[in-house]
Specification:
Length: 96
């Protein structure tokens, strides 16, 4: 909403929210794929981790491409994506 207030254009605000939502959905896909199946051996957990990371990036880029195909403002989507990624990294560092 800050992007909307700053620019005065609702399309920029929507694109910023879309970019941040791409990161949120991608992290949710990662968490669901990583935690699925419960306890397992180290090799299984490593395989799950890499598969979950791959799916996270596929979902992230897919949603970003969908936003571009919907003619959303690309720089605003990048701002939302970067802001959400920094917030997620900061939360991971602070709360483990």
């Amino acid at each position: 909403m800050i992007a909307f207030a700053w620019s005065g254009n609702w399309r920029v605000g929507l694109a910023t929210i879309w970019g941040g939502s791409c990161v949120a959905v991608a992290h949710s896909v990662f968490a669901l794929a990583q935690m699925r199946g419960g306890m397992a051996s180290v090799s299984t957990l490593a395989r799950r981790f890499f598969a979950a990371a791959a799916w996270k990036w596929v979902v992230l880029f897919g949603l970003f491409a969908l936003g571009l195909s919907l003619s959303l403002h690309a720089p605003a989507m990048l701002v939302g994506l970067i802001a959400a990624q920094i917030a997620g990294t900061g939360a991971l560092v602070r709360y483990g």
